[in-house]
Amino acid sequence: MRVVSERKLTPVDGPPVPVPDPDRLVHLQFRRFAGCPLCNLHVRSLVLRRAEIEAAGIREVLVFHSSAAELREHGVDFPFPVIPDPDKLLYAEFGVGASPRALLNPRVWLPVVGAVLRGLLFVARGKEHFPAANPEGGRLGLPADFLIAPGGSIVASKRGRHAYDQWSVDELLGHARGGMSAG
Questions:
Q1: Among the four given CATH numbers 3.40.30.10, 3.40.1190.20, 3.40.50.720, 1.20.58.1120, the one describing domain 7-182
Q2: How far is Cα 164 from Cα 39, in angstroms, rounded to an integer?
């Protein structure tokens, strides 16, 4: 079992975030780029169930391969720490990559349509901006999820095989039930 060394990550806003957290599980999730419609769609599902996630002893931490400036430009308003990693140093450390097939998998197509329609609605209402034409780090990034126990052990992980291949909230909560006993 891999152990994550102690560190403090610097979010776009707010105080440094300890990983691992001394008291809670950390759901360290790697997203794509600032303004990514698929990422926003998934993160909104986490926001809607935030109370359940927190009650399960989980601290959400989101990592994007964008700069803090680009994340601010896209109005990062998530109730979770958002970590900019434009040089993809954390991505490399955790083995999170990109793939030309990220958007070609048929399992991505329906979520893409939903994400784009939702994004257009939010852009029309002035609540979001269109993503950059050439986002930092490119469009072909893959998502990944890591559940890290207070001692630093990675108790569960998933590296996405396409652009919308990440844990659902139910899967996260299931891993947390097992992770608290393992951690």
A1: 3.40.30.10
A2: 8
Q: What is the CA radius of gyration of the chain?
A: 16
How far apart are the C-alpha atoms of 54 and 60, rounded to whole Å? Answer: 8
pLDDT reading at 183 higher than 60: no
Distance of CA 78 to the CA centre of its chain: 11
Mean pLDDT of the chain: 85
Return the domain boundaries, the chain. Answer: 7-182
State the alpha helices, DSSP H only, in 18-168. Answer: 37-48, 50-55, 68-73, 89-93, 106-124
Residues sharing a CB contact under 8 Å with residue 151, sequence separation 6 or more, in sequence order: 3, 20, 183
**Considering all CA atoms of the chain, what is the largest pairwise distance in Å, rounded to the nearest integer?**
46
- Residue 11: partners with Cβ closer than 8 Å, 6 or more residues away: 17, 81, 82, 83
In the numeric block, the tokens 């097939």 are attached to 101
Q: How buried is residue 177: exposed, middle or buried, by Cβ count under 10 Å (0-12/13-18/19+)? A: exposed
pLDDT at 85 over 90: yes
